[in-house]
């Protein structure tokens, strides 16, 4: 565990009220802003597909791009349907969780700096 993660965990254990309030706020924010969340999920899904396609089918993709790319030429290079389904599930689960944890981490950091200013 890195040093900053340890200090965040320590802060969360020392101030559980901040952790709970922040988690509630960010979960509510992810749920009540479905368009923003959906756009993030779709972007992550497309990025995963592109990353896998570029890394596994590099030579075929370069040949298609040299000839002039078309959507019908690129479709056979995409990952298999079970892999696409797995990417969809991963995107739907991981993106909202990461949005919540990023917000909570940001709140824990800012609450620490706010307390320092109040103590001075």
Question: How would you briefly describe this protein structure?
Answer:
Helices cover 88% and strands 0% of the residues. The chain contains six helices and no strands.
SSE arrangement, N to C = HHHHHH
Q: Given the C-alpha coordinates, what overall shape results?
A: elongated
Number of strands: 0
Distance between the termini: 30 Å
Detail the poorly predicted runs: none
**What is the count of helical runs?**
6
Average pLDDT confidence is 85
Biggest sheet character: none
| SS class | mainly alpha
- CA gyration radius, whole angstroms: 21 Å
Number of domains: 1
Summarize the amount of helix as a percent range: over 70%
Give the strand content: under 5%
Describe this structure in words.
The chain has one domain (3-111). The protein is mainly alpha-helical and 120 residues long. It has helices at residues 3-14, 16-32, 34-56, 58-67, 71-74, 81-119. The mean pLDDT is 85. The chain starts with a helix and ends with a helix. Helix 3 (34-56) packs across helix 6 (81-119).
List the helices and strands and how they pair.
Blueprint: H1 3-14, H2 16-32, H3 34-56, H4 58-67, H5 71-74, H6 81-119
Helix pairs in contact: 1-2, 2-6, 3-6
Q: Keywords, please?
A:
120 residues, 0% strand, mainly alpha, single chain
């Amino acid at each position: 565990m890195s040093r900053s993660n340890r200090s965040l965990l320590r802060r969360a254990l020392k101030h559980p009220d901040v952790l709970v309030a922040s988690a509630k706020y960010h979960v509510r924010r992810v749920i009540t802003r479905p368009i923003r969340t959906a756009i993030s999920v779709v972007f992550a899904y497309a990025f995963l597909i592109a990353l896998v396609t570029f890394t596994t089918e590099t030579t075929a993709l370069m040949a298609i791009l040299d000839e002039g790319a078309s959507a019908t030429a690129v479709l056979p290079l995409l990952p298999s349907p079970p892999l696409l389904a797995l990417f969809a599930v991963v995107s739907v689960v991981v993106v909202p969780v990461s949005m919540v944890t990023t917000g909570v981490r940001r709140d824990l950091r800012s609450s620490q700096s706010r307390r320092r200013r109040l103590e001075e």
